Amino acid sequence: MCTTCGCGPDDHQHNHEHGHHHHGHHEADPHHHVTDPAAKKISIETDILAKNNRLAQGNRALFGSKNIFALNLVSSPGSGKTTILERTLKDLGEKFHCAVIEGDQQTDNDAVRIAATGVPVKQVNTGAGCHLDAHMVCHAVDGFDLDNLELLFIENVGNLVCPASFDLGENHKVVVLSVTEGEDKPLKYPQMFHAADVMLLNKTDLLPHLDFDVEKCKEMARRVSPGILIFEVSSKTGAGMSVWYDWLISAMR
Ligand SMILES: Nc1nc2c(ncn2[C@@H]2O[C@H](COP(=O)(O)OP(=O)(O)O)[C@@H](O)[C@H]2O)c(=O)[nH]1
Ligand SMILES: [Mg+2]
């Protein structure tokens, strides 16, 4: 058994194919006679999310006890998460003790980019998995000096769907949308924009070449998430990044 989160060796591959609830003891299985495949699917999803939420609460308690401010960066592939992190770490890395967890299905390309900034980084490859979960994060932070860590960035797998459902124990989800993706993405992927507290509208340096309507995009984001904070940035030129830093520092304190 793992001493960090209490997982057993079979946990990672457990497919819950009988729809059992696993609360650490055996009990009457309320789904034993379920034959409707849709109902069975919902039951399995509920199991997975309940387990994830439990582990996320553990992560949150750990981060809280160590005074670690954790941000979960989510977006579609290529919106600029890693580039935003590279610049943010260059600009804030000397003020705060930072660390990064890099989630990708394959390769350690992003971890190599982050390591070049001098900040400790841990790569998590999810294989076929389309999101990070709280269990992966729980193990990934194990390697960091948590007593001295102040700011933890988690770059999620590029995907605007699944990461919305998986709490990692972070303080805030930060969704990155780049102006090349079209202003309607908040309406198309409302769960993600609803789950995020902050939206970084990235690649604003490209606006002169595009028809992208910034105000329309912000209005669409606020329609699905009225309280969402929106910062317009270019992680390439650095434009707008100081406003993002100001928010980050005030939210940490
Ligand atoms: N023009 C422009 N390109 C950017 C900006 N941010 C990122 N990129 C480019 O977008 C591509 C994907 O960026 P990356 O950070 O790897 O995205 P990720 O997949 O979300 O981590 C790279 O070629 C970056 O150089 C930006 O603000 N402006
Ligand atoms: Mg990346």
Word description of this protein:
The chain is of the alpha/beta class. The chain has a single domain, classed as P-loop containing nucleotide triphosphate hydrolases (Rossmann fold, 3-Layer(aba) Sandwich). It is 35% helix and 15% strand. Strands 3-2-4-1-5-6-7 form a seven-stranded parallel β-sheet, with helices on both faces. Helix 3 links the parallel strand 2 and strand 3. Helix 1 packs parallel to helix 4. The longest helix is centred in the N-terminal third of the chain and has 29 residues. About 7% of the residues have low confidence. Bound molecules: guanosine-5'-diphosphate and magnesium ion. The site of guanosine-5'-diphosphate has 16 residues, from helix 2. Pfam families: cobW (PF02492). Keywords: GTP-binding, Hydrolase, Metal-binding, Nickel, Nucleotide-binding, Zinc. Belongs to the SIMIBI class G3E GTPase family. HypB/HupM subfamily.
